Amino acid sequence: MKITSLAAALAASVLLLAGSVACAPPDKSGDGQQTQSGVKAAEATSAEDFGGIDGLVEAAKNERELNVIALPPDWANYGAIIKAFSDKYGIKVNSAQPDASSQDEINAANQQRGRSTAPDVFDLGQSVALANTEMFAPYKVVNFDDIPAAFKDAEGTWVNDYGGYMSIGFDSAKVPPVTRIDDLLKPEYRGKVALNGDPTQAGAAFSGVLMVALSQGGSVDDIAPGVEFFRKLADAGNFLPVDPTPATIGSGQTPVVIDWNYTNAAQSKKLPSWQVLVPPEYAVAGYYYQAINKDAPHPAAARLWQEFLYSDEGQNLFALGGVRPVRADNMATDGTLDKAAAQTLPVIDGPVTVPSPQQTEAATKYLSEHWAAAIG
């Protein structure tokens, strides 16, 4: 399969791993719901605790709702995934702060702990996920053994769900074509280059700075040249300190966006002039981390959501969003991977850079000390 290079690169990396306003009263009904095995729903570590998937579905339906956060509809096809889950199980999905960062997810969980509005599940970048594992509830989906060991915690505390490559998206009707990263320093891009988020808090922005660092002679162990490049962008007036969204792209406010390939590619469906470049010499890849909030107000629904995401149906919906689902290789082997979707995923024939958890931690520390001053 053409899509295995990302899996191999990510496996090599991950194997190195040894206040909001009160809107509703606390809701502990899900936490107190007993499973067939006698444990509370919030303590269930597999569907077997509910007597199987049917028992889990019944328990989740009794909770009636699921709270998700930081899942833009155009990100990894989450709009279609949320709708499919809700339609299939009759569970209302409350989607909060769709454009929030990974750190915002953790902040919301801490601020709303004990309330019915708290996030039930997380979808996080590597650095934020690994810094907050004590907030996750271990759970193994039915397909847990089908997920490569490099892409999951052995106890199911976190599991990678989908991956992609860092890219530059641009509106060819408004700016000259971007053919290389250094193009972004040209006068033609004055006030036009946006980065998706703050690299000290958002996985996409972090990987964007890393990609740029590689192009400037840096490495996964030296992100400083990337920070320096953005300082030059800011000094030239080219850096646009606006978090890009489908609305800012559609309006032309952010005509150049550094973001994951699948997020940029989603804009091409609405804006024919929007093009996407994955710089092949400086390919940076990454997986996101899926986890259950240990204080989830709807613990059964949270576990059913995980089962859905890692099912063939959920994984194919990810693939249709331009991301590489974590079970892609196994599904390709057994013939359940959507072939049309697989063919749309980017192919990188050269080396792919993926930071280890330790490298991410060191780079994040450097960013926390130098990023704000660099962009002024």
From TrEMBL:
Region (Disordered): 96-118
Presence of the UniProt keyword Signal in the record: yes
UniProt key word Kinase: no
GO biological process: thiamine transport
Biased composition (Polar residues): 96-115
Record GO cellular component, one term: outer membrane-bounded periplasmic space
PANTHER family assigned: ABC TRANSPORTER SUBSTRATE-BINDING PROTEIN, THIAMINE-BINDING PERIPLASMIC PROTEIN-RELATED
Protein name stated in the entry: Extracellular solute-binding protein
Species of origin: Mycolicibacterium novocastrense (Mycobacterium novocastrense)
